[in-house]
Specification:
Two copies of one chain form a homodimer. Helix content of chain A is 62%, strand content 3%. The first copy, chain A, has 136 residues and is mostly helical. In chain A, a hairpin with a 5-residue loop joins strand 1 and strand 2. The first copy, chain A, binds a DNA duplex (30 and 30 nucleotides) through helix 2.
Chain lengths: 136, 136
DNA sequence: CCTTGACCTTCCCATCATTGGAACCTTTAT
DNA sequence: ATAAAGGTTCCAATGATGGGAAGGTCAAGG
């Protein structure tokens, strides 16, 4: 299997496969006589693991940790749970931040007539003037 | 007011002030004889506007649009509302994605004993094997 | 046999927003 | 006079990915 087929089989672009190899996330595969990378079932499995972890929002570094734990036969599941749990916390913090932004923006947009008058509470808020958002 | 004072007054780092100037987000200020940037009330006001917009998650490009609308006396508040509303939508999409990740991860962590057995449903899921998550 | 097109290789550049640092100059305070 | 603190420019790095150029390789069809 060459890199294009491995890419199709895993959903990881050929570019990214080479990149993951270059940063040491995955091991360099064998090469053909004409220097093409050759992938087998094991490599595809690893790539799918990486793809899934990235889809779940793990950073490449976290993915490397999880991959190490996955391939370590003596690993403790507690360690994995810890990585996952701290990732959940980070995600929830991010979500709360985004929700705060949305709340503020919705409030501003609600106060904004959306008509053609030049008064605009959104711009006023951004500018640090709060006359129109008081008492709401 | 030099760049350090402007930075303290606005919470925008001196580095970023120079950067915003270099990309044309803000105008180049006057200079002293010794080539120091000089900032006045207007410039500080602009920087605060930028800071607030960035804090609310607007990209630098969106911030530039908002800044333009703010400084345009003939602007329509409808335009501003449109920028804000589409930004809200983008944020909500992002939130939904993150919530999906959290849900999956919580499910996996819940199924994970967190003890020292090498079996780990989280890793099994990442690897694409779903025997332990079935029927839950 | 030769061409064409699809695929592979490496290498460099761009993105987005921000930070860090080097090398050097200016101002202020001791 | 000197040292500290601040300014200036320029270059590089981050994280993850995409784009593309220049060139080698393979398969199918004429």
């Amino acid at each position: 299997m060459n890199i294009g087929e491995a890419s199709n089989a895993t959903g990881v672009s050929a570019k990214m496969i080479r990149y993951y190899e270059s940063i040491g996330l995955i091991r360099a595969p064998l090469r053909t006589g004409s220097n093409y990378r050759v992938y087998g079932e094991d490599e595809v499995h690893v790539l799918r693991f990486v793809k899934r972890a990235r889809t779940l929002g793990f950073s490449v570094e976290e993915t490397a940790t999880l991959l190490g734990l996955w391939q370590d036969k003596t690993r403790a599941s507690a360690e994995v749970k810890e990585v996952a749990t701290s990732h959940i916390e980070a995600l929830e913090t991010k979500i709360a931040e985004l929700q705060g932004m949305v709340k503020t923006l919705k409030h501003l947009a609600h106060c904004c007539g959306g008509d053609n008058r030049p008064d605009c509470p959104i711009l006023d808020d951004l500018a640090g003037e709060h006359p129109t958002t008081k008492g709401h």
